[in-house]
Amino acid sequence: MASPVELARHVAGFDSDGIEHMQRLFRTWGLIADLALGDVLLLAPVTAPNAPVEDPPFIVLANVRPSTSPTLYTHDPIGDRHQPDNRPLVSEAWHAGAMLRDRVAFGPNYPDGEADIVAAPFWHGSRKLGVVLRERKVAPREQIQLETTYNALSDRLLQMVSDGAFPFIGASEPQYGAPRVGDGVLVLDHDRRVTFQSPNAVSALHRLGIHRSPAGQRLADIGLDDSFVRSAFAMSKGVTQELERGDEVTVTSRCIPLLSDGQVDGAFVLVRDISELKRRDRLLLSKDATIREIHHRVKNNLQTISSLLRLQARRVESSEGRAALEESVRRIAAIAIVHETLANDSAEDASGDDAPFLDVAKPLVRMIEEGLGFPDNPIRFVITGDAGRLPLIRSMPLAVVLTELIQNVVDHAFPASVTPDEGRQVTVHFDYDDHELRVLVSDNGQGPPEGFEFAEARGLGLTLVNTFVTTELGGSITMTRGDGPATNPGTTTTLAFPRTWEDRVSGPAID
């Protein structure tokens, strides 16, 4: 089945602005359904080829069921097409450009009874996009005050839809999602005084420590900060604010102004107790801070180990032993850089266990560059592309592999007897998609010896690289000779591996 966006674009002829406004309605029209105690549908005339122009059929683009009462639809109505005589009120509201109401008998597939129907044209600026249809079963009994109040608010919102004033454009979205009608409702008049409060709203006020009845008073009069209400009245759009009582209780409140002829003449406030959500957020923040502190301490411990190895290297008389200790220091430093990056990552979506790998690669290259002893003929390092964010389990072995590959270039690609005309250069390029990360380390040095096979390398550095790539990263690595001049053809080492361990199974195969 096609999605609402696909139906709107290909069947109803919506442009991108119309689709954006339709999605804006979808984020807020649950209010209408909950207040109406009924189903709400969005229908649009079919503009596909061969569709009639004067009296086109209408297609259901989307629907929302109420959370406050049973639905009339046991099936999914999205994609259903209706001729004008099947939904006459929809066609009439579309042509009239105004909200219409009717009461009809249920069809043969429904229980006995009648449905109260309201059809409101859905506007975006001066353009009609479709019709919002509200259907509610007529109650066989007299409605209580809560139901009549909710229905009246629903009618006001539908009238605002018909006037092109709802959904609000530019209204901020609540952090924890919009409160629902069942969470609690306060109705305000044009003077911002409370005319109705639902039982759940009273309970939410009690949790904030307010036990005075709000009836006939402004929220400020009973001890609440009503700045969000004043802002909603002034800006004619929904405004949300969190009200707190210490660290234990948090209630989010969203004020929805009611407009008539472009003027605010009332509003209603939805209140929701989000204390448990805030508590979980605080726990997550505390956990994240703990993880970052662990990364910071691991980094410090690794630096201490590096310092001890450097001290030991100074006392070793054998050049081979000293070189081996220096290589160990470099490898430990690469791991320490990963932990430092994870500890300092300040991105909004940071989890404490992943970070942009470029933030690891840059200090790695700088560390190697600072350790070179070629002041007269330096090596230029260039980093291009992007590696995205990687979890610790991937970034740790990759950092060691990248360090070894670059150090291998420094040690073997540029002997003193071979100096490229354009200068010594090492390029590290990253490229990734949803499943795979590719790393290319290229140089313009003397190139690998003829017949070189990476898998048969016996040096400790390349052995570590091969082991980490095939075992820890689950990827592949190749080293090829470049096409430069005979004295310095260059080398390109290509590394490819899945971005997550799950991609090793579910992602595309690695060439």
Question: What is the strand arrangement across the widest sheet?
Answer: 3-2-1-6-5-4
Gross CATH architecture of the largest domain: 2-Layer Sandwich
CATH class of the largest domain: Alpha Beta
Radius of gyration based on Cα positions: 33 Å
Fraction in beta strands: 15-25%
Number of DSSP strand runs: 18
Structural class: alpha+beta
Oligomer: single chain
Poorly predicted ranges: 504-511
The count of domains is: 4
The named CATH superfamily of the largest domain: GAF domain
Helix content: 25-40%
Let me know the average pLDDT. 83
Distance between the termini: 35 Å
Structure commentary:
The longest helix is centred in the middle third of the chain and has 41 residues. The relative contact order is 0.06. Helix content is 37%, strand content 25%. It is of the alpha+beta class and 511 residues long. It has 4 domains: 160 residues, GAF domain (Beta-Lactamase, 2-Layer Sandwich); 93 residues, Beta-Lactamase (2-Layer Sandwich); 77 residues; 137 residues, 2-Layer Sandwich (Heat Shock Protein 90). Helix 9 runs antiparallel to helix 10.
Secondary-structure map with pairings?
Blueprint: H1 4-10, H2 16-26, H3 30-36, E1 39-45, E2 58-64, E3 81-82, H4 88-96, E4 100-105, E5 114-124, E6 127-137, H5 145-163, E7 185-188, E8 194-197, H6 199-207, H7 227-235, E9 239-245, E10 249-260, E11 263-273, H8 275-315, H9 319-344, E12 354-356, H10 358-370, E13 379-385, E14 389-391, H11 392-412, E15 424-432, E16 436-443, H12 460-472, E17 476-481, E18 491-498, H13 503-506
Helix pairs in contact: 3-5, 8-9, 9-10, 9-11, 10-11, 11-12
